[in-house]
Amino acid sequence: MKIAVVIPIYKELADPDEKYAFWQCVEVLGSYPIILAAPHSLNTTYYENLADKPVTIQRFDDSFFKSVTGYSKLLTGKYFYEAFQAYDYILIYQLDAWVFRDELSAWAEKGYDYVGAPWLEPPPITSGKKPIINLSKRLVNKVGNGGLSLRKIKSHIKWSFWATWMFRLLPKNEDMIWTLFVPFKKPKAREALSFAFERKPRQSYELTGHHLPFGCHAWNKYQPDFWQQFIKKY
Description:
Elements: E1 3-8, H1 16-29, E2 34-39, H2 45-51, E3 56-60, H3 68-75, H4 78-82, E4 89-93, E5 97-99, H5 104-109, E6 114-116, E7 148-152, H6 153-169, H7 174-181, H8 189-192, E8 196-197, H9 201-207, E9 215-217, H10 224-227
Parallel strand pairs: 1-2, 1-4, 2-3, 8-9
Antiparallel strand pairs: 4-7, 5-9, 6-7
Helix pairs in contact: 6-7
């Protein structure tokens, strides 16, 4: 089973929380290949020095990193996943994610096509505009958020044409497209809570019997006071 950790980056310097998240990723998951997904024009020297170990740089067109819509277009496109065909799975690790321990291989061995934190409530609308079609409520208890997500490469390549077509029809966040419109094999919400928390981490912690997940997303945005007891910054 070949697994890589893919960290999307789009700016030359990380803010303090992003730097801690980067270090934590390298510390916990450093035994896997770490790949920085970056725009062609970005100088990645800062991140390469921050990693303090060899990392690979995978370049994509700058347009994909200028907005949430551009990023979603990239992650619903076949070309993104074809860049990682040497691997069975990739873990998308955005720099507002955190991992507590290495359970990556164990999750890959489960054979799911896609795993992310389940949405325990409708996610926010990121465009700032009232959508013509609001699908947020359909995401409740679905799997899952893409900020920290495990993805089977073959399955994403297979369904990328459909995901791309749906994105053109409904330009929503990429994780919403994969969740609602692609028949992936995914864990139920309760099992996925052992993979990651996002919104409502206190409630998630109760639901897992006070057991921390493999990781979390947006820890500095949703109930950050909850995470202070578990996330110790360097």
